[in-house]
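Many introductory courses stop at the sequence. We go one step further.
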Amino acid sequence: MTSKRDRVKVVKKIVVFFDICSSTSILEDLIRTENQKAWRDLLIGLKKYLLQNQDLVGFQLYKFMGDGWLLLFEPCTEGLEIFQFLEALCDKFIYLYKKNIKKILTVRISNEGLTFGMDIGSCIKIVMNQELEYIGRPLNVAVRLQGAIGQRSKKPANKLLLSNNLYATFKDKGKIGDEYNIISVKRVLKNISGGECYLCQKLKLK
C-alpha cells in the first residue's frame, strides 16, 4: 500500500532562469585583482532584491546556480507582470554592477546585464536532504533557453527566450505586444527532446 508520504506531488509552474552576462570574465578579473568581495556583494544585493519582491510579485526564489537563479511563478501569472518585474530586475542589476563591480574592473566588458529563459510545465516536488526540490522538463528547458540567447546575438544582455508553450498560456498577449517587441525564432537546445530546431519567442526587456 502506498502511503501519503510515498505519493509523488506534481505541480505546474512557470520557470524563469536568469544569468549574468560575461560572468566568467568578470569573476576571473576580480579574482586576479583580489576583489572577490565585490562579486559577493553583487550577488547578495541581487538576492536581497529578489527576497524583498517575491511576495509582492508572487514568485518563489527557488535555487541559486552559480551566477543565476531559478524563479518559480504560478501558472496563472500574467506575462506582462513577469516581464515588467524582470525589467526592473535588470535595472537593479545595473545599479549593483556599477556600484560594486564596474569601477574596479581592469578588462572591458561589452555585455553588461542579465539574460533569461522561461518555460511552463509540470514539476515533481520532493524533499531531498531536508531541502525542497523540483524536478522536471520546464526547469531544463528554461536553463537551455537562457543559454541559447547568445547563439545568434552578439549583444545578449537583457534579452529573454520563452517557449511557445508558455507564450500560448498568456491571456494578455495584446498588452505584452503594446509594451514589448516579441518575435518568433528558432534555436538549438542541447539535451532537450525536439531541441534540434526549437521554436520559441524572443523579447528584449530594455
